[in-house]
Amino acid sequence: MEERDFYDERAESRTHTMTCPHCRQEGQYEIGWLVRRKKNQVGRNADERDRAKFAKFQSYMVRRDDMLGCKNIRCRKRFEIAGIQSVAFI
Ligand SMILES: [Zn+2]
Prior knowledge:
- There is one protein chain.
- This protein is mainly beta.
- The protein is built from 1 helix and 6 strands, in the order E-E-H-E-E-E-E.
- The protein has one domain.
- It has one helix spanning 48-56; strands spanning 7-19, 26-38, 60-63, 67-69, 78-80, 87-89.
- Zinc ion (ZN) binds next to loops.
């Protein structure tokens, strides 16, 4: 079995508070994530090794966005997402 047999994947967006490094304005931004939630149980065709791997597996999410556009109309510069990890366990 592959790791992807262990989870259900879904694209979600979450709101984060970010500060633009150019104009220093704080704002709420929607950031896209790929959420990989562990299945309730491992598939029928799993062998013992798969079961052991599945037991240790944790749900996690991967950030899809790297850049944001500032919402301040006098700035509107693009900036890199900083301070939020690109992979997070849930
Ligand atoms: Zn800005």
